[in-house]
Design a protein that fits this description.
The chain is an all-alpha fold and about 120 residues long. The chain contains five helices and no strands.
Length: about 120
C-alpha cells in the first residue's frame, strides 16, 4: 500500500468500515510510514473533537493568537492594489504646416512694418 491509498483509507479505517485485509494493510503502512501515521493521528483528533457532546467546550488553547495568525496569512495572500499613476500634464505642441508657418511669419513682418511706419 502506498501513501496515497493509505491516506484515502484513513477515514474508513477510523470508522471501522474497512474489511480485515484492508484494515491490516493500513495498520502495517501506518507502522512503517511516520508521515501517514501523523495524518492518521491528526484526523483521529479531529474526529474525537467532533464527537464531544458540548461543542462550546471546543476552544483553541489561544484563540486570539490563532485569529491573529489566520488574519496575517489572509493579508499576506491579498495583493495590494497598485497606486494609480498620476495623470501626465498635458503637453501643448504646436503643429503647423509649412504654409501656416510662412503665413504667420509674413503676418508678423507686415504688422511690424506697419507699426514702424506709424511710429515714424
Amino acid at each position: 500500500m502506498n501513501c496515497e491509498e493509505c491516506q484515502e483509507s484513513i477515514s474508513a479505517f477510523l470508522d471501522c468500515d474497512l474489511d480485515d485485509v484492508a484494515s491490516n494493510a493500513v495498520r502495517e503502512h501506518l507502522a512503517l510510514c511516520s508521515p501517514c501515521a501523523k495524518v492518521c493521528e491528526d484526523f483521529a483528533a479531529i474526529v474525537d473533537s467532533c464527537r464531544v457532546d458540548n461543542p462550546a467546550e471546543i476552544v483553541p488553547p489561544n484563540a486570539q493568537a490563532l485569529w491573529c495568525r489566520i488574519n496575517n496569512i489572509i493579508e499576506s495572500e491579498i495583493k495590494p492594489q497598485p497606486a494609480p499613476a498620476p495623470p501626465q500634464p498635458a503637453v501643448r505642441r504646436w503643429n503647423f504646416s509649412l504654409s501656416q508657418a510662412v503665413a504667420g511669419f509674413a503676418g508678423v513682418a507686415i504688422i511690424s512694418s506697419l507699426l514702424t511706419i506709424v511710429g515714424i
